[in-house]
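Students often ask why we bother encoding 3D structure as a string. The short answer is that it lets us treat folding as translation between two languages. Here is a chain of 193 residues written in the first language.
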Amino acid sequence: MSRRSLAPRNTPKQDRSKRTRREILEATARLLNKLPEDEVTTNLIAKTTGISVGTLYKHYPHKDAIVSDLIDAFITSDVRELRARLVASSGARAHEEAVDWLIAKHETEHQLRAVLYGNLGRLRKTSDAFHARLEILDGITKSRTTKERTESPNRSLMILAAANAMIHVLSQVEGTPDDWAHLKRLCLMLLER
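And here it is in the second language, the structure alphabet:
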């Protein structure tokens, strides 16, 4: 990939511009969840959003900038949602709610998440994803007992990454309900060990 900027063109200040930016990201997410990535063009995104291509380019210089911003939005949303579930409950119940939410997201957004995960390295977002895992890990750690908190943070991080990877892999092969139930048990065993 060339060294072109992945940043949006500007930071919207007016509500209308913020709404347009949000609509571009939402349209891109819907399209990437149902079409092959190479078929999702800036022209199609603009058409789906109901704006001109010129307006889209006022917000984003190219498709990679949109995907990069979408990755940021998903990372932020995932951290917020998982931490909320971990804070709302404690122990096994917190883990179960977090795993249920993550499985549901992967089942409904399996193609989109494959695109986002697949672009982490190319768009230089692996560090952002790693830091998001650390924030989620902090929530998992706080939901554990004092004794469980003394284990190596690296072990917990590996467990979290393994659970997420297993969920992602199963979402890509269209697992059966029995597969999902078994995967949930495995994830909970890992998180609660």
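Translate back mentally: The chain has a mean pLDDT of 83. Keep this in mind for the problem set.
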